[in-house]
Specification:
Blueprint: H1 4-17, E1 22-31, E2 34-39, E3 43-45, E4 48-50, E5 55-59, E6 63-65, E7 68-70, E8 79-84, H2 90-93, E9 112-116, E10 184-186, E11 189-191, E12 195-200, E13 203-208
Antiparallel strand pairs: 1-2, 1-8, 2-5, 3-4, 6-7, 8-9, 10-11, 12-13
Length: 211
């Protein structure tokens, strides 16, 4: 007969084995506002390695405050962390605060949130020394930038561009219409105020560049 200590330790091991906290998983599908993901670390049950099933309708964790947020695209094959909630959050997820739970489950796989952006060693990203963004970016709202900015590639502006300062261009700048309140220089020559001489019927005249 097992003694009390053995029974207690066995019960504790069983409880800990079923208290899920963070699980590494791979995204299997992206469905609008949620994802599906399948854990990639097997459980060992009675000495056998058992794959865990796919979990569906997992909400994503978003860096958000008020109406501002940063949302990254997610595709099948991305790795993620599933953060397992201590309690069932179904009623909260559907809009109800401070109510009793639908289920009395604790640390259940079905009550997870996903953080996408973890990689195995073979796909690990090198930690940069400066903030690095890779991929396409859509900015909705105001943007304020202080400091120097270097851009390699094309920039398309659909709308007006207001510049309070100087513009230095070392390549081709194509603009259908330029309005400068304080003047502009092209090739070191002030455009709009520069004057030059030309000869007309033997007389030397000075004229301003046409506008």
């Amino acid at each position: 007969m097992e003694n009390l200590e053995t029974v207690m330790l066995s019960g504790m091991d069983q409880a800990l084995a079923n208290m899920h906290t963070i699980v590494v998983a791979k995204v299997t599908a992206v469905t609008g506002k949620t994802i599906s993901a399948k854990p990639v670390i097997n459980r060992v049950v009675d000495g056998q390695s058992i794959e865990l099933p796919e979990f569906i309708e997992i909400p994503l964790l978003t860096l958000q405050g008020g109406s501002s947020y940063i949302h990254y695209p997610v595709v099948a094959g991305d790795y993620c962390l599933l953060l397992v909630s201590e309690r069932c959050y179904d009623k909260w997820y559907h809009g109800q605060d401070n109510v009793s739970m639908d289920e009395l489950s604790m640390f259940d796989y079905s009550d997870s949130f996903a953080i996408v952006g973890v990689n195995p060693l073979a796909k690990a990203l090198t930690i940069p020394t400066t903030t690095t963004m890779q991929g396409d970016v859509i900015q909705n709202g105001n943007y304020t930038h202080t400091g120097n900015r270097t851009m390699t590639g094309n920039m398309i502006i659909n709308g007006n561009l207001t510049v309070n300062g100087d513009i230095t261009c070392t390549g081709t700048l194509t603009v259908p219409n330029i309005i400068c309140s304080t003047g502009a220089s092209i090739g070191g020559i002030p455009f709009g105020t520069h004057k030059h001489d030309y000869t007309d019927n033997g007389s030397t005249l000075t004229t301003q560049n046409p506008k």
